[in-house]
Amino acid sequence: MPDVPLARLLVTCPDQPGIVAAVSGFLRNHGANITALDQHSTDPAGGTFFLRAEFTTPDLDLTADALEGAFARVVAAPFAMDWRIDYAARKKRVALMVSKYDHALLELLWLWRRGELDAEVPLVVSNHDDLRAEVERFGVDYHHVPVSKDTKAEAEAQTLALFEDAGVDLVVLARYMQILSPRVVDRYPHRIINIHHSFLPAFVGADPYRQAFERGVKVIGATAHYVTEDLDEGPIIEQGVARVSHRDSVSDLKRTGQSLERDVLAKAVRWHLEARVLVQGNKTVVFA
Amino acid sequence: MPDVPLARLLVTCPDQPGIVAAVSGFLRNHGANITALDQHSTDPAGGTFFLRAEFTTPDLDLTADALEGAFARVVAAPFAMDWRIDYAARKKRVALMVSKYDHALLELLWLWRRGELDAEVPLVVSNHDDLRAEVERFGVDYHHVPVSKDTKAEAEAQTLALFEDAGVDLVVLARYMQILSPRVVDRYPHRIINIHHSFLPAFVGADPYRQAFERGVKVIGATAHYVTEDLDEGPIIEQGVARVSHRDSVSDLKRTGQSLERDVLAKAVRWHLEARVLVQGNKTVVFA
Amino acid sequence: MPDVPLARLLVTCPDQPGIVAAVSGFLRNHGANITALDQHSTDPAGGTFFLRAEFTTPDLDLTADALEGAFARVVAAPFAMDWRIDYAARKKRVALMVSKYDHALLELLWLWRRGELDAEVPLVVSNHDDLRAEVERFGVDYHHVPVSKDTKAEAEAQTLALFEDAGVDLVVLARYMQILSPRVVDRYPHRIINIHHSFLPAFVGADPYRQAFERGVKVIGATAHYVTEDLDEGPIIEQGVARVSHRDSVSDLKRTGQSLERDVLAKAVRWHLEARVLVQGNKTVVFA
Amino acid sequence: MPDVPLARLLVTCPDQPGIVAAVSGFLRNHGANITALDQHSTDPAGGTFFLRAEFTTPDLDLTADALEGAFARVVAAPFAMDWRIDYAARKKRVALMVSKYDHALLELLWLWRRGELDAEVPLVVSNHDDLRAEVERFGVDYHHVPVSKDTKAEAEAQTLALFEDAGVDLVVLARYMQILSPRVVDRYPHRIINIHHSFLPAFVGADPYRQAFERGVKVIGATAHYVTEDLDEGPIIEQGVARVSHRDSVSDLKRTGQSLERDVLAKAVRWHLEARVLVQGNKTVVFA
């Protein structure tokens, strides 16, 4: 764990020679020390370039604002970069959404309490009141926002207001069984993570464990992905799999799958919090 | 490895009390010795019952024919069984079909030569002539049967005649890139095994590695299944998976996947040869 | 889930012809209905035979006691069987032991509360008081029994008395960091399950994650095993593995490993509770 | 696949600020284009720094020799680097050693023929003559160099002479069952790869599948490592694992394990050929 300030730079831009030299030279010149650097090019000729750098700033010669301003001018503009810098000292604020299944939610709260998720968790929003006691025990606010066909717009407005008030950076759907409308999705582009209980793109839609049972697959999976307006179609962050057999009933698949869901969602959230995930089109680059 | 004759009994029937007792009592009474027995019920009440028994016949009091006749009358009829007995001494005869990719074919031929596939392999049929030398080196006949839109019926008739002459029990499509028509499929029900190069039901159809690349999945797979008239929809025998990342190009996925294909197809074929696979509707029971 | 009484028969005996017929015939004759049967022989000639049968008793013509008496005389004695029948209606009583790490303990308590571990959990015994509040929240008694070199005998006597009072059938060491002396181990032969945080037999002894880090392995593991007098040497019930890389620090290995530990221990405990584990010498037969 | 010359730079040095900037700046200034860069630090303060860069040299302003000379002076010396540059155009020359098991050898020869191992394979050396025909079929020279206790020194001298003549860069022990003496090992430091048929450090020494069977493990493995003077103790490059059960005999473990061995050894060799493996002490950094 670093005693000195830690920051993470994420860059996406058209690939061309000299990007690594420009970025690393800039950081070096201003007293930042690169401790990890990952880089990926879809194609050296005419492709897209992705970079993640972790750096410490023991001897920074500028304020963070001034550093970012200089980076924008000197490095980002010439290379037409899409970029951002995250500072570990400013923890991301995460809202969890859940319906009735507690497994994915509790996994995240447990890991968070153990210090394994580097975030603030100011609130949980649910369309049911069932999990209030479990959540409040962790010292997290629980908001019951029921959703019906008629009240959906209102419920989403209320939810967005709660997120706004809490300064939410990331929304995690820990088995939240309502479809979010564009008014929510568009507010948090690539900042809403969902866990789908199948190995996407197999078994989109409802009741994937029953679908898997009926198709007779020998391996099941779980998929964490960013939510977009196309249900179950957003960029995949992580997937996990487990073997099953003819002996497994639908409820066996469910039990095995829930263990996968917990694991896969936790990994995806941790990677997002550590700024390891970049999105390109409908795919992700994960520097894990 | 048994010195005494080994046989395998497969049974499917409506579940009801007393089936195991009836089967094992019958075998016991006629001097057969059960060395392995697996059993599965989809539901004890009104479900389907599956059984596989391996038995040796050191002291059989009947000929095999008489044993089967007695079993039919005394056990199978009262329980309305669908059943068969395979004798290890009568090796199954396997035809391999292939187009141009050699990896799955060579894996099978190599395992066969090592004695790891308990079968006869009288012939390979291909719509190309490319792999002739490779195949003939194993002492296996190679038949080049070109297929075009106009000659498909004729080519299939020729293929069926070859199978007939060779007394084929099982057909394995080791990356055979032509769709078999019902006239072939119906002749070998649940006796044609195909390897599909994706984790079915994801990515049916053509070029699944490219589809997987474009969807940005983090795990790829391969699926061995029985061929039915619905392309890529037959009962799944086995599936294998491997992790991939954003660093993998389509050709990396292909290379990783081909290793899966070899492994998954070889398992499925071995299990079929050892009479470990029962089909129920569009699913399999695999006593592996 | 069965509405009718469910029982599980476990048998170990010298292999010889006729065992399956004798067992299944006996159950059939007394109105029991076999719903699952698994069988394993180490060698048909002179080997050991293992059998697990699940049966329901909708029409039993005897009391359980009389059934067991008859089985002992008619079936078990002639075949020299080591055997027992477990009744699902009589839930096993499980004591958990823990030191300071909470992950394995909480996983078991949480699965138990969800109904995924079919057992009673009357108490937790710990050599520290740290986890009292967590445990009591589940309605489970927490006993703090400190252990020092001088007080070990006394502490173990106290622990055994607690187990006795609670009618304990199974002890689970959910990261309990004290070595149990023979006076405890011998009281619960093959009824104490431990989770060791490595892929045994690699990295026995202390601090296995550091050992794994220093050896530079690319895969780590966790092992659930029955406790015997030889530390880390008892029969292995289940093992799980996960990939790691040079990027992982000791604490990364620990975090990844703890997820494995939870999963592997839960599986081993569930299989024990469902009477799926037989011990032969220093190995297990797991009918999972 | 690159049309322009591709090179790979590997660097190990004490960690300090500015290394990435120095390396990438140097390459940029001389017209080389970085297409992939991976970097790892064991500890930003006082640790060791590892870097791998792939670069193309479409516009190099120097000869390769001059580039290396300038790099040595301008970059390597100030940072006390241990470094080398590999050129893809100069394929590494690989000698394979084998005894009687053909599976690992054939896998490598197959992959090589398919173009999946970017190397020259001038010769196979074996202490038996059994696999001559298999090897020569691939157009590779086969040298039978018998080894007995009395002739070991002589046999190793002969082997080294063969390697010398063939200009060997890498030696792969594809199940070669003789222990190499320091006179061979020291000639090819971190350039001899062995496949050990267990999950090291479990089951060192002879007959690991039998050891695994007797310990009753539920997962087996295979390990590719560099050969050092301590048998089975060299730096691990890659490991693979597979589940097994009580149903598996020693020969089942062997069959399952041989599939692992093929896969794990092939990965390790490919990574070495692509200059993805750095050695630090007794561990590896694998930029895969």
From TrEMBL, chains A, B, C, D:
**Catalysed reactions, as listed in the record:** (6R)-10-formyltetrahydrofolate + H2O = (6S)-5,6,7,8-tetrahydrofolate + formate + H(+)
State the superkingdom: Bacteria
Q: What class of enzyme is it?
A: hydrolase
Recorded GO terms, molecular function? Answer: formyltetrahydrofolate deformylase activity
Assigned EC number: 3.5.1.10
Pfam families reported for this sequence: ACT, Formyl_trans_N
InterPro entries on file: ACT-like_dom_sf, ACT_dom, Formyl-FH4-Hydrolase_C, Formyl_transf_N, Formyl_transf_N_sf, PurU, PurU_ACT
Do you know which SUPFAM superfamilies this protein is assigned to?
Answer: ACT-like, Formyltransferase
Catalytic positions?
Answer: D232
**Cytoplasm among the record's keywords?**
no
Pathway entry = Purine metabolism; IMP biosynthesis via de novo pathway; formate from 10-formyl-5,6,7,8-tetrahydrofolate: step 1/1
Gene Ontology biological process terms, A to Z: 'de novo' IMP biosynthetic process; one-carbon metabolic process
ACT domain boundaries: 8-88
Q: Which UniProt keywords apply?
A: Hydrolase, One-carbon metabolism, Purine biosynthesis
Question: What family is it from?
Answer: Belongs to the PurU family.
Job of this protein: Catalyzes the hydrolysis of 10-formyltetrahydrofolate (formyl-FH4) to formate and tetrahydrofolate (FH4).
What name appears for this protein in its UniProt entry? Formyltetrahydrofolate deformylase
Organism equals Rubrivirga marina
What broad taxonomic lineage does this protein's source fall under?
A: Bacteria, Pseudomonadati, Rhodothermota, Rhodothermia, Rhodothermales
Protein encoded by which gene: purU
